[in-house]
Design a protein that fits this description.
By secondary structure, the protein is α+β, with helices and mostly antiparallel strands. It is built from 5 helices and 8 strands; from the N terminus they run ββαββββαβαααβ. Strand 5 and strand 6 form a beta hairpin. It comes from Peribacillus simplex.
Amino acid sequence: MKLKRSISIFSSLVILGIFSTPTFASEKEPNTKMPSIEEQLHDFQEFEESINNGDTKIYNDKEVDASLKSAPETLATSGTYPTRKGVILVTDGLRVDSLVGHAGIVTKKGQAIESFPDGGVQYNSAKWTTRYKKVWGVTTSGTSASQDAAAADWAVSKKGKPYNMNFFDIENTNKFYCSQLVYKAYKTKTGVNVNWLGGIVTPADIVNTTKTYTIYKFTK
């Protein structure tokens, strides 16, 4: 079960003489401010705890479409490091300014398309489990493997685009930060919105949204 961050609002008894009820963020309720580093770390912590206590399951990867079975790099790999084109990789082990974590999309075995401040959108062949202490592989609900591959191809088409330091500018298609690239690729090619709380799209959003499910986890 993927739990959303909730905010309890306490109204002053002196002014109003009443208690207000707790309010809960929804998928359609946009964040209008940058989530703090502590909030983002808490989102990752809650996600990890939900896996550890069994509320969030590790599922088998989706079946590969018949049209993709001739391409070895797209074969499903359940329970092992993801190599299927279109699987999303997420970690909490990187920080850029006030953005916590990192996200990318697998393009083939041993390669992902990612965006970094140094060089923008680029291929990276370094295995995530050698770079980070925690890694999760997720895939989108309701999409086929061919649709996921199309999202990966869209992200690849942005190779060479610069890094986007304006984390609020999530619809920009000329520059990208890591989780924004994932968000735009899937929204553009599949219609799936992986932005959990709206507004800035963080790596933690991608693992916490109900629009994705987990197929792989790694912890050192």
